[in-house]
Amino acid sequence: MKRSALTAVLREEDGVYVSECPELGVATCGDTPEEALVNLKEAVEVYLENAKEPGLDGRGAGVRAEDAPADRRNTLE
């Protein structure tokens, strides 16, 4: 099973947590950081299931924020 690593950026805006995968242009939000990341994982999975681009097949994608500050890093598996 092929796995891909993607960036998950998490930020707080006006009391709402916004999560974004810049590589795919997918973003969502939640009332808590955890909810925003769960929502992002689901949104990325839907995107990848429908993707037609080579290399994006939706199987076993993980989302990871390697370049984010340590307190903002997350891995969605």
Structure description:
Residues 55-77 are annotated as: Disordered. InterPro entries: DUF7387, TA_system_antitoxin, TTHA1013/TTHA0281-like. With 77 residues, this protein is α+β, with helices and mostly antiparallel strands. It has one domain (5-66): Double Stranded RNA Binding Domain (2-Layer Sandwich), CATH 3.30.160.250. 23% of the residues lie in helices and 30% in strands. It has a three-stranded mixed beta sheet with strand order 1-5-6, covered by helices on one side. It has a three-stranded antiparallel beta sheet with strand order 2-3-4, with helices on one face. The chain is elongated, with a radius of gyration of 12 Å.
List keywords for this structure.
77 residues; three-stranded antiparallel beta sheet; DUF7387; 23% helix; Double Stranded RNA Binding Domain; TTHA1013/TTHA0281-like; three-stranded mixed beta sheet; TA_system_antitoxin
